[in-house]
Amino acid sequence: MAVHWFPSPRGAREGLRFLALAALTAATACSNGSAPTPTPTPTPTPTPSASARAGTTITVTEKEYSLALSPAQATSGTVTFVVDNAGTVAHALAIAGPGVSNAHTSTIPPGGRARLTVALRPGSYELWCPIAKHKELGMDTRLQVRGNGSASPTPGSAAASATKH
Fold it and tell me: What b-and-e string marks burial along 112-150, b requiring 16 or more CB atoms within 10 Å of the CB?
């Protein structure tokens, strides 16, 4: 069933012209002819729950045969591990703990960098290099994750990427 607003094709064309003219008039009335200038937003003072929602970034420096975390603590929520291979052989990073069992980066070449983003709950997590016997040689550490005062996130999938820098 078709509904006709205009009694003839000529009336329809005139109606469309009117609508186009009205839209153009409204658009130019709201414009001063220059591109909009973005208004800077003030940076709020971070609170534990706000920073947890925004996510935490932890730098992991790997070399023969150690892992160094900076910072060495985290609040529950989304955590991105930026993994720098400062060693002379290939490394990787794996993590396991509450709700996380198979999160890992790909192999990172010497001088390379990888990112691994994981949703972490409060608890203790083990981080290690899963290549050969690197874990047994000392590339193994723990990360304690504390609650952020809000509901704990549902564990999600891990996302990882590796690059050479």
Answer: bbbbbbbbbbebebebbbebeebbeeebbeebebeebee
Secondary structure of 63-77 in HEC code, one letter for each residue: ECCEEEEECCEEECE
Does the model's pTM come out above 0.70?
A: no
In sequence order, the β-bridge partners of residue 119 are 78
- Burial, 160: exposed, middle or buried (Cβ in 10 Å; 0-12, 13-18, 19+)? middle
**Which sign does the torsion angle of CA 134, 139, 144, 148 carry?**
negative
Residue 49: φ, ψ to 5° = -70, -35
What value does the mean pLDDT take over residues 73-91?
96
Q: What is the pLDDT of residue 113?
A: 98
Closest CA to 114 of 94, 134, 137: 94
Which element (helix H / strand E) includes 51?
Answer: helix 48-54
Looking at the DSSP bridge assignments, the partners of residue 84 are 61, 113
Question: Residue 93 pLDDT > 90, yes or no?
Answer: yes
Structure tokens at 53: 């929602």
